[in-house]
């Protein structure tokens, strides 16, 4: 569906072509033109106010951004032939990514596919005034992971926990995971670029749940005490779920394990600090709006779809910040094989914390995304998403 939409919108700003091949040729022409005229700075949009009621003059605000920055280990010109070669080099990409982060001015960054944490990001983010926590993917050949960077002046780290989805091998019974492809989601059918990242298809017996579940995916969650005046506790969680649409049951199992761990962590923090912590869950969930993973994540908010009755409601009530404000964006990932929304920021509904602005995203016809991502304007195949929140007095 999105291929047709992209084609229709692209025709509004480019000469008319009658075939898909001609369309792809046009995309390549645009990409080559962009490579001759590289942007001096990455394209970053503004935060848009979504305040409906009168703001709390005594409230405190902070900004959170989630961004899959595309691990350099996955960046190869053969896998990204649509991208200008110069923008794929690590020196150019690393500086461009830092440029994006600098311009966004977030208090919290939830980053996925971070593969140069010790050698690059930790020291450079420290220069920008951030502290960080990080978890690398399990498995000998997995070099990327998830990081949360935060400004110590805004928040104090009081607790953290790792999430390793390989723990499902011990905690999920073999018969709880389907051994067939019946659960395959049509949503991500054409996500060829993610397949390229894990191009070595698993040749092991996927009918064995222990093999099927071992995907080496991770997440990290931490409790932060927001600076005065209220010292409110906020739990920030960051994750990257598995990509393969043929293993949709595994993604759903990961989502269930994530929320069970998040619920346990919330209870521990609530007891230890005698408070009601807010929850912000961000990441690349490799799931589009409306599929089973997405529906499960928001099912604890009392709006469970009929399709989720068999799965049960999530143990943590969550809502998508974009969905409850301006609606989910048309896309957060833009490649020749797949263009749709995969990245989200979820919030536990509360009178104590509310979103007051969201990061704007480009339209499909926007010049900076024509030719697909990454390009000279965007150093990753994903776009950053973000929101500003306001905390009121408890």
Automatic annotation (TrEMBL):
Domain Endonuclease/exonuclease/phosphatase as annotated: residue spans: 66-152, 259-382
Region described as Disordered: spans on this chain: 180-204
Stored Gene3D superfamilies: Endonuclease/exonuclease/phosphatase
Superkingdom of source: Eukaryota
InterPro entries cross-referenced by the UniProt entry: CCR4/nocturin_mRNA_transcr (IPR050410), Endo/exonu/phosph_ase_sf (IPR036691), Endo/exonuclease/phosphatase (IPR005135)
Transmembrane spans: none
Signal peptide start-end: none
Biased composition (Basic and acidic residues): 188-204
Protein name (record): Endonuclease/exonuclease/phosphatase domain-containing protein
């Amino acid at each position: 569906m999105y291929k047709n939409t992209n084609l229709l919108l692209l025709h509004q700003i480019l000469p008319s072509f009658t075939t898909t091949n001609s369309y792809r040729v046009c995309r390549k022409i645009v990409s080559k033109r962009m490579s001759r005229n590289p942007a001096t700075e990455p394209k970053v949009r503004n935060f848009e106010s979504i305040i409906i009621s009168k703001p709390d003059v005594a409230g405190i605000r902070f900004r959170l951004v989630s961004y899959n920055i595309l691990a350099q280990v996955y960046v190869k010109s053969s896998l990204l032939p649509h991208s200008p070669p110069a923008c794929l080099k690590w020196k150019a990409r690393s500086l461009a990514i830092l440029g994006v982060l600098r311009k966004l001015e977030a208090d919290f960054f939830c980053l996925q596919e971070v593969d140069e944490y010790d050698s690059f990001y930790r020291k450079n983010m420290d220069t920008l005034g951030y502290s960080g926590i990080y978890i690398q993917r399990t498995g000998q050949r997995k070099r990327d992971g998830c990081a949360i960077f935060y400004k110590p002046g805004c928040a104090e780290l009081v607790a953290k926990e790792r999430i390793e989805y390989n723990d499902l091998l011990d905690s999920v019974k073999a018969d709880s995971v389907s051994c067939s492809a019946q659960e395959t989601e049509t949503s991500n059918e054409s996500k060829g670029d993610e397949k390229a990242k894990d191009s070595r298809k698993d040749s092991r017996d996927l009918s064995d749940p222990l093999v099927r579940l071992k995907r080496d995916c991770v997440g990290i969650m931490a409790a932060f005490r927001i600076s005065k005046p209220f010292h409110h506790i906020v739990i920030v969680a960051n994750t990257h779920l598995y990509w393969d649409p043929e293993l949709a049951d595994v993604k759903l199992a990961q989502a269930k394990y994530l929320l069970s761990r998040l619920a346990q962590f919330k209870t521990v923090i609530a007891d230890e600090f005698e408070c009601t912590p807010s929850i912000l869950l961000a990441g690349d969930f490799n799931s589009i709006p409306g599929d089973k993973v997405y529906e499960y994540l928001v099912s604890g908010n009392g709006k469970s779809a009929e399709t989720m009755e068999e799965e049960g409601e999530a143990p943590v009530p969550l809502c998508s910040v974009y969905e409850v404000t301006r609606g989910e964006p048309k896309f957060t990932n833009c490649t020749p094989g797949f263009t749709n929304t995969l990245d989200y920021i979820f919030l536990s509904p509360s009178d104590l914390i509310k979103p007051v602005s969201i990061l704007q995203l480009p339209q499909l016809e926007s010049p900076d995304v024509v030719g697909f991502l990454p390009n000279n304007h965007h150093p990753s195949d994903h776009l950053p998403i973000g929101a500003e929140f306001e905390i009121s007095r408890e």
